[in-house]
Amino acid sequence: MSEETPDSEEVQSALEYLEMLKEGNMFVGKEGMLEQLTRLAKQGVHPLEVFQSMRKPVQEEKMPPVLSSFDMEGIARYIADKGCKQVVVMCGAGISTSAGIPDFRTPGTGLYDNLQRFNLPQAESIFELNFFRKNPGAFYELAREMWPGNFEPTPAHYFVRLLNDKGILLRCYSQNIDSLERRAGLPAEKLVAAHGNFDEAHVIDTEPEIKVDINELKAALDKGEEGWRALKDAKGGLVKPKIVFFGEELPERFARLHRQDLATCDLLIVMGTSLVVQPFAGLVGYATRTAPRMLINRDRAGTCDSLKFGFRFHLEGEDNWRDVFHEGDCDAGCTALAELLGWDKDLQALIDSKGQASVYRAPWVEASET
Ligand code: OAD
């Protein structure tokens, strides 16, 4: 697979434009916005592009329908008839809620509604670099609670694994930091942990970056404030797990792979995400125009009214040629799709064996491999 990095001229021009706005005092009191725009600019996204996408829905050129019906049956028929081999999955916190991990934004149960004890200026501050620099204790306390290890993958995670074992998964892009995709047995090269995870730790604000063994951080946090202060002194700065905070760039792997993957995919499945965090949400719009896209979620998300080239499943007739919304839980949606494909026993075997079972390739993949 060829590598793609943002064009350096695009980055240069985006950064220069930001500099100009900064000189015009446009970001006074809006430092968070400046950080987000700088992060996007470094990935080649021009601030004007961001402002435009915030302002008006972008018109897409229509196409003849690529699905026989705009529901899960239509997707299952498409997979089998077309012999899909390049499926891209995008997922978020909703695929892990049945494992007992709360999502972020569901009113009442989501993490952001349950952070009162930290007295934050706003809920998202817990994942903001500026806030962490001044008040590391809040994140550290939360990190101890969120530390992976006590959770098991869900049927939705095993469904992604199933797609891989069937030979039809190109990549899974996950916003989750719980590493449950890997725990379900998804090979590392098939996963892009877009918001990082707890596999590694680093000293913030270091260039070149100083890495720290994640177990060292865990041991320090287990000792409470005294522990993390001692670690800070020993390492010359605050240490945090390599999960992506607002104001930080996404991993290099995300920048390198996403455009090529989305341009090649023959089906996009999006599950359990509100699609409000950029640049992840923008991946939906990068999927090639002939690839069907299906959202499995409790709520509608990522429609073209709010997201550039977003889903069009809410539009009538020729305005939607490829998008499906399957309303409901990720586990149920994945199980239903597996059933329609005749892969339900394979999925169940993976769930029951905690990923130990082996499954046959999809017939069209097997035929192409022999
Ligand atoms: P959100 O909490 O924003 O959205 C989760 C979505 O999943 C919502 O639309 C829920 O209705 C839906 N949902 C929850 N449980 C579900 C289930 N069992 N089946 C189907 N749908 C379900 O979470 P994300 O979109 O993942 O960033 O959030 C994106 C990012 O925002 C996170 O990665 C995190 C956060 O700030 C960082 O930490 C950097």
UniProtKB/TrEMBL annotation:
Residues at the active site: 195
Higher taxonomy: Eukaryota, Sar, Alveolata, Dinophyceae, Suessiales
Source species, domain of life: Eukaryota
PANTHER family: NAD-DEPENDENT PROTEIN DEACETYLASE SIRTUIN-2, NAD-DEPENDENT PROTEIN DEACYLASE SIRTUIN-5, MITOCHONDRIAL-RELATED
Residues the record lists as binding NAD(+): 93-97, 103-105, 175-178, 273-274, 297-299, 330
Catalytic activity: N(6)-acetyl-L-lysyl-[protein] + NAD(+) + H2O = 2''-O-acetyl-ADP-D-ribose + nicotinamide + L-lysyl-[protein]
Organism: Cladocopium goreaui
Required cofactor(s): Zn(2+)
Entry's Gene Ontology molecular function annotations: histone deacetylase activity, NAD-dependent; NAD+ binding; zinc ion binding
Chain ranges of the Deacetylase sirtuin-type domain: 65-344
Protein name per Swiss-Prot or TrEMBL: NAD-dependent protein deacetylase
